[in-house]
């Protein structure tokens, strides 16, 4: 026994010492002093209780240098993953499994576009945003050269190269791609249109329906220079090791509807869950500037943020900015496509992909007149047609000005300057939300919108051999959807369809049906005395009012005599208000039953693979009410049987399967089928896909009220397993009352740091799961007197000068 005890204590001692050594080598530095070249003046950084840096600098360049340095300390490996996606170089560090991902992004053209944007950027004249960007990059690279590299590099046996502005443009390109609903949807819609009957297509909500909720527009009066008039101011991809933007909510309430008599601003961007979390928060102060922002890895300016006088946020516009053109190849000239009775050569180039542990791979990329040919990298296209299919994507048509736009959003003095910044965003489509200390509220759809011919259905492959399907130019920015100081007293966006443009048509997109927007609008309109504390209930709400209607529709189709104990099931669903509380049983039954109903309806026509693809598109959420309630839909009939199945038969059969599976999974007592047992949330790290690294890097959360299209959207893919892995949700929840900006609040899903040895790696995860908030501190006196960690970055040049003077 003594020998066993001695061995145990020895192993325990070795583990403790080993952990201390690892902690010493890899943990972030939050206190003390660091001497750095390229820093002009000393900068003080105070970390609050959640590891958020509060940077006090003597000038802008030192502030952004310090931001880059600290951002790299906390998120360098996340920056690495982001730039490698955007530059098509993941396989170089992660191996052959990522070759197809690199091929996809290179074929799509994001790395090529990053080079173009970078060349234009390099030729631009000096500007404040260029100087700040260079300072930020210098800070990142200073950390790479002087700081502790994250342990991920040691595990992968590699070291990072220095960052460049081309890397930043690659990251911006990846961000612009991430929604990418056209790639998921258009091949599937095209296939259905070509293989199914018009009656099948009519039941689907490919385009906006009258039952969907649209965002009201309120165009401002403008001067001859198109400025807002001041007298109106008060009116394959699962492998990608970084998250995708999914959607978002934002609403801004005017002073007429708040208790404080000041603007109330809220934003929660919906992004794929990951570890580390997407947003990095930082507070910057230098003479004449005070700003608190949410930063994307490798991008110097906050995409969401606020000063003491204005705030701006984002949701995805979801506009359709990508079309697919099916080309016709000339049989006599196989390297040419036909266009308007003429011929246009196919351009090609060879690219090389470095692969970890293997030889470099060469592959060819072909481009038609319309854009890159995607058959080889999007399997659904290759299966659908042998003709080349080219991607026409607005983002690739001009260099990005995102760095200039985000700098100007963060440094704007008023609503006019914000709109000027918004005009610079050509893609991806974003809803930019705004509120200020003067009482203005606003929403702009920021995007360059193509003016398509009226006959064009942008969800189906277009004819590339003629100019009849070509865009006729661009809509002027002033016609973009927007609402400036509306009489309703609020603006809100939730990825749903904006109302018709001045030409009387809806701009096409991949919009959600508006369940979230409708709920937000109803609640805001219910009172005129909103406070920062009261509005939290709406931001955390997990109610979808459509689901009980869908459930009742299915219940009414069932013969109760066929099911023992049906009254208990009926009661659970009949009294359901659409809430997804963890103690509820209704969601557990509803989603299982819905999945099997849809599968029995659709998999015979689509096949299992395309049925699963359908569940990943906007079509699924938009189409469910019509699909399950339409009595005479051809989808109900199983094409593989000789008889004609009815709606009632399919719904009853789906219920039979569901009840059996739920009993096997959770027990025979349906009162035990609580939603909490069916929900799983794990924030996955890029290295956490392999055991035992998952136990080290992944962050597992308590169960959350997962749902489809509630305001507090915690999304999962519908499936038949009965276990729902939450894949995305609010990447932050922000609330700002301009009556006291210093008391604004937020929360992120895991923690501020991406360093596994930091105490801030996951210190917000349980707070987030439980619907708690923490402060966004801006009060200098409070920050400095309460901070337990003060890091001083010292200008090495000045230290040397001081030393020489002394001598």
From TrEMBL:
<dbReference type="InterPro" id="IPR043146">
    <property type="entry name" value="Penicillin_amidase_N_B-knob"/>
</dbReference>
<keyword id="KW-0865">Zymogen</keyword>
<protein>
    <submittedName>
        <fullName>Penicillin acylase family protein</fullName>
    </submittedName>
</protein>
<keyword id="KW-0378">Hydrolase</keyword>
<dbReference type="InterPro" id="IPR029055">
    <property type="entry name" value="Ntn_hydrolases_N"/>
</dbReference>
<dbReference type="InterPro" id="IPR043147">
    <property type="entry name" value="Penicillin_amidase_A-knob"/>
</dbReference>
<dbReference type="InterPro" id="IPR023343">
    <property type="entry name" value="Penicillin_amidase_dom1"/>
</dbReference>
<dbReference type="InterPro" id="IPR014395">
    <property type="entry name" value="Pen/GL7ACA/AHL_acylase"/>
</dbReference>
<dbReference type="Pfam" id="PF01804">
    <property type="entry name" value="Penicil_amidase"/>
</dbReference>
<dbReference type="InterPro" id="IPR002692">
    <property type="entry name" value="S45"/>
</dbReference>
<comment type="similarity">
    <text>Belongs to the peptidase S45 family.</text>
</comment>
């Amino acid at each position: 026994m003594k020998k066993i005890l001695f061995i145990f204590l020895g192993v325990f001692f070795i583990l403790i010492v080993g952990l201390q050594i690892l902690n010493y080598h890899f943990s972030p530095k939050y206190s003390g002093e660091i001497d750095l070249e390229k820093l002009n003046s000393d900068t003080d950084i105070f970390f609050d209780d959640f590891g958020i840096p509060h940077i006090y600098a003597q000038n802008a360049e030192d502030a952004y240098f310090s931001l880059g340095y600290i951002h790299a300390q906390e998120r360098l490996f996340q920056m690495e993953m982001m730039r490698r996606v955007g530059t098509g170089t993941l396989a170089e560090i992660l191996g052959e499994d990522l070759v197809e991902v690199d091929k996809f992004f290179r074929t799509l053209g994001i790395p090529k576009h990053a080079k173009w944007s970078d060349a234009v950027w390099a030729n631009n004249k000096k500007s404040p945003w260029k100087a700040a960007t260079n300072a930020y990059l210098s800070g990142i690279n200073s950390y790479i050269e002087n700081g502790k590299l994250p342990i991920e590099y040691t595990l992968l046996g590699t070291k990072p190269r220095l960052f460049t502005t081309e890397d930043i443009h690659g990251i911006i390109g990846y961000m612009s791609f991430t929604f990418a609903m056209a790639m998921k949807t258009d091949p599937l819609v095209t296939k259905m249109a070509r293989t199914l009957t018009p009656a099948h297509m009519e039941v689907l909500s490919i385009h906006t329906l009258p039952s969907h909720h649209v965002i009201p527009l309120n165009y401002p009066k403008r001067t001859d220079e198109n400025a807002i008039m001041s007298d109106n101011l008060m009116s394959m991809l699962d492998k990608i090791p970084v998250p995708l933007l999914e959607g978002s909510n934002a609403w801004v309430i005017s002073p007429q509807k708040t208790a404080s008599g000041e603007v109330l601003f809220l934003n929660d961007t919906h992004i794929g869950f990951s570890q580390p979390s997407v947003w990095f928060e930082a507070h910057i102060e230098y003479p004449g500037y005070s700003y608190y922002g949410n930063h994307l890895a490798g991008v110097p300016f906050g995409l969401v943020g606020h000063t003491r006088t204005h705030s701006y946020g984002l949701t995805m516009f979801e506009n359709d900015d990508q079309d697919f053109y099916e080309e016709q190849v000339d049989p006599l000239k196989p390297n040419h496509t036909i266009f308007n009775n003429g011929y246009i050569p196919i351009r090609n180039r060879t690219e090389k992909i470095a692969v970890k542990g293997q030889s470099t791979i060469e592959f060819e990329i072909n481009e038609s007149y319309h854009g890159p040919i995607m058959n080889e990298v999007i399997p659904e296209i290759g299966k659908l047609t042998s003709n080349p299919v080219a991607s026409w994507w607005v983002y690739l048509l001009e260099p990005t000005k995102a760095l200039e736009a985000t700098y100007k959003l963060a440094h704007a003095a008023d609503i006019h300057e914000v709109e000027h910044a918004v005009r610079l965003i050509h893609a991806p489509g974003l809803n930019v939300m705004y509120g200020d200390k003067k009482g203005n509220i606003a929403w702009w759809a920021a995007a360059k919108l193509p003016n398509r011919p009226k006959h064009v259905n942008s969800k189906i492959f277009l004819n590339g051999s003629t100019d009849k399907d070509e865009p006729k130019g661009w809509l002027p920015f002033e016609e973009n959807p927007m609402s400036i100081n509306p009489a309703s007293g609020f603006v809100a966006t939730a990825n749903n369809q904006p109302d018709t443009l001045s030409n009387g048509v809806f701009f096409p997109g991949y919009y959600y049906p508006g369940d979230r927007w409708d709920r937000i609008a109803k609640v805001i309109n219910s009172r005129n005395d909103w406070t920062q504390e009261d509005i939290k209930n709406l931001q955390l709400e997990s109610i979808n009012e459509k689901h009980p209607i869908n459930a009742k529709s299915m219940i009414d189709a069932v013969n109760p005599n066929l099911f023992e104990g049906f009254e208990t099931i009926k009661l659970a669903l009949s009294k359901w208000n659409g809430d997804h509380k963890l103690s509820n049983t209704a969601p557990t039954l509803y989603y299982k039953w819905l999945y099997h109903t849809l599968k029995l309806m659709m998999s015979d026509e689509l096949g299992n693979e395309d049925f699963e693809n359908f569940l990943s598109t906007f079509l699924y959420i938009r189409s469910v009410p019509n699909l399950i309630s339409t009595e005479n839909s051809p989808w109900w009939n199983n094409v593989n049987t000789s008889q004609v199945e009815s709606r009632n038969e399919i719904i009853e059969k789906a219920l039979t399967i569901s009840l059996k599976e739920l009993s096997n999974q959770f027990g025979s007592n349906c009162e035990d089928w609580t939603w909490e047992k069916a929900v799983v949330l794990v924030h996955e790290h890029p290295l956490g896909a392999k055991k035992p690294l998952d136990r080290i890097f992944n962050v597992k959360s308590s169960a959350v009220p997962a749902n489809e299209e509630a305001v507090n959207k915690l999304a999962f893919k519908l499936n038949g397993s009965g276990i729902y892995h939450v894949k995305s949700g609010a990447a932050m929840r922000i609330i700002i009352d301009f009556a006291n900006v210093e008391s604004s609040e937020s929360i992120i899903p895991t923690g501020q740091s991406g360093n596994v040895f930091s105490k801030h790696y996951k210190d917000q995860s349980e707070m987030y799961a439980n619907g708690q908030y923490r402060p966004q501190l801006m009060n200098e006196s409070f920050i400095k007197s309460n901070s337990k960690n003060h890091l001083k970055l010292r200008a090495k040049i000045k230290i040397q000068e001081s030393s020489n003077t002394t001598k």
